[in-house]
Design a protein that fits this description.
Largest sheet: 8 strands, antiparallel
Strand order of the largest sheet: 3-4-2-5-8-9-1-10
Oligomer: single chain
Strand content: 15-25%
Radius of gyration: 24 Å
Mean pLDDT: 90
Shape: globular
């Protein structure tokens, strides 16, 4: 197993995306990358346009050395394409990336300077790879998801997704159509496997904080990613499928229970609780203040100080060292609740309440009682099964709530 820490910072107020590569090289100084990787995904708005008129066609004409990295996505829509030198995947592991001297920081900067015009790519990933953060760097990247064999890891998935599967001592730049100009995200990735083996992870944390400070920008998130051997990945993927089936069976069983609201678990969305009259001029309360009171006695903490990522109301379970995170929100007068549970080798997320109509405080109180009952069911029934399938999470693991797909992502099995 190899372990990485990824820190995301927003450089929007520091440097524009187009000038980010020379800026980073200036900060790195003597720690220059050994190789450069890229993935440019083009999804034209019109169907079957002339290739020469697409962003990818313009790129290939302007930079002939990149033509060898062109991958067409679909026979039905040949205009959807990706150019990438991300390495191949074979038997659930990366093949050692080749060093192409034609792919230079100068070339990638020249491309970046023309994004989003004339190169209006849907997704962009640029990786400054094999940086010696702590001395010698392991030049073989680690795969954090059990992907099938592929000539290029970016072929068949979006480029932002491919970079999240790529773990090494590196820096990742991303530009996404979905982001627009709101962010200029910088992902700094550090391998800390040796520090964990030596019991000196706190020293790595101090050095990582110092390195991140040099790059500037606004801190966005921090997460620890564990990359397993092919055999371990296969085992955890099989365990995830078993847990998915187990949760399906428990959902059916819970559907037969008598819930405080009288509405069966997972059923009757968009229907009011019988026998309760709506309150005149009722408004849903502030969700943070209300659920702080509801969940406090069960040990849940809003924005838990030991949990990174998209943490809302969370606790670290003593049994198994897992995180249990509750995310409630109101949309107009409807209540929605998502539950996340994760450890170092698995993650589960489920909508446990959807479209519950709240026209009075009494209805909301009953739905809150439903939630507390569900938490008890999860801890007493599901957590023991997770421990049986995945084992306990090591004490050194730094928890975070993320929505990337890594090894052990539990499928949502319907029916």
């Amino acid at each position: 197993m190899r372990v990485f820490i990824s820190v995301t910072q927003d450089l929007k107020k520091v440097v524009p995306f187009q000038k980010t590569i020379p800026y980073l090289l200036g900060v790195l100084k003597e720690r220059l990358p050994e190789r450069y990787l890229f993935a440019f995904e083009d999804v034209p708005e019109t169907e079957n346009p002339p290739f020469s008129k697409t962003s990818m066609g313009k790129l290939m004409k302007a930079f002939p050395p990149l033509q060898q990295y062109l991958h067409l996505r679909s026979e039905k829509r040949p205009e959807v394409s990706i150019a990438s030198n991300f390495p191949a995947v074979s038997r659930f592991a990366y093949v050692q990336p080749e060093l192409d001297e034609a792919v230079t920081p100068e070339l990638l900067t020249a491309v970046a300077e023309k994004i989003p015009r004339p190169y209006s790519f849907y997704n962009v990933s640029i990786v400054l790879d094999s940086i010696s953060w702590f001395g010698d760097s392991n030049t073989i990247p680690a795969l954090s998801y059990s992907m099938p064999d592929a000539e290029c890891v970016a072929d068949g998935i979006n480029s932002c997704g491919s970079s999240s599967f790529y773990q090494s001592d590196c820096i990742v730049l991303e530009k996404s159509f979905d982001y627009g100009t709101a962010y200029n995200p910088l992902h700094l990735r550090f391998e800390v496997t040796q520090f964990i083996e030596e019991g000196t992870l706190s020293q790595a944390d101090t050095q990582i904080e110092e390195l991140c400070t040099r790059f500037g920008g606004q801190f966005m998130s921090r997460q620890m990613v564990c990359c397993f051997s092919p055999q371990e990945m296969l085992h955890f993927e099989a365990a995830a499928k078993q847990l998915g089936l187990y949760l399906q069976s428990r959902s059916k069983a819970w559907n037969e229970l008598s819930m405080p609201s009288g509405i069966p678990f997972g059923k009757e969305s968009y229907q009011s609780i019988p026998g309760i009259q709506p309150e005149q001029n009722y408004c849903t309360p502030n969700r943070i203040s209300y659920f702080k009171k509801v969940l406090r006695e069960d040990g849940f903490i809003w924005r838990h100080p030991k949990i990174d990522g998209y943490c809302e109301f969370a606790k670290i379970l003593t049994e198994g060292n897992y995180v249990l995170n509750i995310s409630p929100w109101f949309r107009h007068n409807y209540l929605y609740i998502r539950l996340d549970c994760s450890g170092y080798n698995f993650s589960v997320n489920r909508m446990v309440s959807s479209g519950r109509i709240c026209h009075s405080m009494k209805e909301l109180e009953l739905f809150a009682a439903d939630l507390k009952m569900l938490i008890s069911l999860w801890v007493n029934e599901v957590v023991p099964e997770i421990r049986r399938l995945f084992g306990d999470t090591p004490s050194w693991y730094a928890h975070s709530i993320v929505f990337d797909s890594y090894t052990g992502s539990v499928p949502n099995i319907e029916g």
